[in-house]
Amino acid sequence: GAVVSQHPSWVICKSGTSVKIECRSLDFQATTMFWYRQFPKQSLMLMATSNEGSKATYEQGVEKDKFLINHASLTLSTLTVTSAHPEDSSFYICSAREDREVSPLHFGNGTRLTVT
Amino acid sequence: AQSVTQLGSHVSVSEGALVLLRCNYSSSVPPYLFWYVQYPNQGLQLLLKYTTGATLVKGINGFEAEFKKSETSFHLTKPSAHMSDAAEYFCAVSEGGGYQKVTFGIGTKLQVIP
Asked: For an engineered disulfide with B32, which of A3, A70, A71, B94 has Cβ 3.0 to 4.6 Å away?
């Protein structure tokens, strides 16, 4: 089955530093990937849609300069949290859709970010 | 705009009992509907999906769901709960296929009591 690998699974960083999270589709091509944020005991909030070779589409209220997304190839998207603050601490999950009609989302295992 | 409502943020069932997790949706076009399961500190795993055709869909781990257009519902059921079913379950809707956005419900945490 389609596998999405997300790395790292957890990261602790100091306030003011930047953190990069990678999302790879291992056995399929994904023109489109999605980045979600999940707060404790809440649903997934779509942050942005990552499009290979073009700019990401951000949801309303998501700071594009803070959450930098790069989708440089058909199998890799990265999310960089710049100048992280404690309020950025959260569970970030990426997902990818196979490049075919009617493909469900395949999810990575998430990244637990803690900013101290 | 599309939306999903999951009734009951927490559901407890005894091991061996019927599992019923409720999901209602709204969509301006024929929807695609999904159920995902999430175990602690992990991503989401697809349980089953409805796109077109047969309204009763079967998924993994013995789960199934029925699309009822008249009730705008897509409830998830399993005849007999197992301890390993304890997890968080998310209902999701997508307005059509392709690369349309998927909207998730708030999730239902299923507890299975031995």
From this structure: B94
